[in-house]
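Lab meeting, item 3. Inverse folding demo.
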């Protein structure tokens, strides 16, 4: 579990310009994470009475809230965490070869032995689907199943445990089926029980054919027709229908766009200081994930690369109507990329346990109540005597 480091508000020294090494915890597995609120981000989060689940790299999930003006942060390590979705007390997270479903146990949160009388929510592993390497991006709970954008197989899939996945839609221009990422299908807008729109980085049907034009050939499609709503986008992600309007993140430009679903006309809602990936809306506020570019890939020809200002990793809060940037929570260490953002309503102080952490102190939840299993079975047997 990671810990929160020193929080800085706007106007304090910028750690990014400080040559001193970052502050870390004594436990190498639990580094401090330094944050800075460049605006009213914490005030917004506090007024909404919610927390955020953030899928990030280096890999893992962080839960960010605020209490008395101070951020609260808990995190766990997971193998290559990617897309997420939230429904009620369920949180699903895609990893390298699995789709993990966590359950929030509010009745046990305050009883958590490691920190009693503090948490108002605690997410523990409940179910794992062994999917294989699907490169899952946008996901959504559809009642008891998960719908997921299966990027590696160029389709939208059902994850329900009967097969590794069941494909239910793919772009009509994709003519083959296989694990060769033909168009980098990556996002879907789900509304009123149906997938309405999807994004891809190219209208291509050859293995990894999208790479050649990924800086400028991105598209938005209508589902199920496959009609091209908009084209010529630079790495579009995270399409969402909000108040009847279609919003799309244009990662290669660091912009939030509103797109007319009939004409394809686009309006720039906001330009942000990062590669944008992951969009969630709650009560009139958009939360947008921001990432630095991956140095190991080198220049990709993206418009955002020519900007004079350094890109940041963090989450931006925007007014959904005006596009005003209300604040940005920047991560100065421990996070290079934000892959997805989800809202956790009515939660202020949340914890999340990885499977390894849960196995060390298992939670037992039943219809008759629950408890934390704090004593090893061997200890119970030794006290009972041999029989």
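The presenter then showed the designed sequence:
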């Amino acid at each position: 579990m990671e810990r929160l480091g020193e929080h800085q508000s706007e106007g304090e020294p910028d750690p990014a310009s400080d040559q001193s090494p970052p502050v870390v915890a004594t436990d190498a597995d639990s580094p401090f994470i330094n944050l800075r609120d460049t605006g009213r981000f914490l005030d917004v989060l506090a007024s909404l009475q919610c927390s955020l689940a953030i899928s990030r790299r280096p890999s893992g999930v962080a839960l960010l809230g605020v209490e008395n003006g101070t951020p609260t942060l808990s995190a766990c390590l997971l193998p290559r965490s990617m897309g997420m979705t939230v429904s009620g007390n369920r949180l699903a997270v895609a990893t390298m070869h699995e789709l993990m479903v966590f359950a929030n146990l509010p009745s046990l949160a305050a009883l958590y032995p490691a920190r009693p009388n503090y948490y108002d929510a605690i997410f523990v592993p409940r179910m794992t689907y062994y999917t294989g390497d699907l490169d899952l991006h946008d996901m959504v709970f559809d009642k008891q199943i998960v719908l997921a954008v299966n990027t590696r197989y160029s389709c939208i899939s059902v994850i329900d445990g009967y097969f590794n996945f069941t494909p239910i839609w793919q772009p009509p221009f994709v003519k083959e089926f296989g694990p060769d990422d033909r168009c980098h299908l990556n996002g879907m807008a789900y509304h009123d029980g149906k997938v309405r729109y999807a994004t891809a980085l190219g209208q291509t049907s050859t293995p990894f054919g999208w790479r050649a034009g990924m800086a400028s050939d991105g598209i938005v499609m209508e589902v199920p027709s496959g009609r091209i709503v908009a084209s010529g986008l630079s790495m579009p992600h995270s399409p969402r229908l909000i108040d009847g309007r279609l919003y799309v993140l244009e990662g290669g430009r660091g912009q939030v766009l509103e797109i007319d679903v009939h004409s394809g006309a686009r309006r720039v809602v906001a330009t942000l200081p990062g590669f944008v990936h992951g969009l969630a809306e709650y009560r009139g506020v958009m939360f947008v994930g921001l990432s630095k570019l991956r140095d190991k890939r080198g220049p990709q020809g993206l418009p955002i690369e020519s900007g004079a200002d350094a890109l940041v990793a963090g989450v931006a809060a925007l007014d959904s109507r005006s596009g005003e940037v209300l604040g940005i929570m920047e991560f100065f260490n421990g996070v290079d990329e934000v892959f997805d953002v989800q809202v956790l309503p009515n939660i202020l102080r949340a914890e999340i346990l990885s499977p390894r952490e849960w196995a060390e102190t298992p939670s037992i939840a039943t219809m008759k109540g629950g408890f934390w299993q704090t004593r090893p079975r061997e200890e119970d047997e030794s006290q009972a005597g041999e029989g």
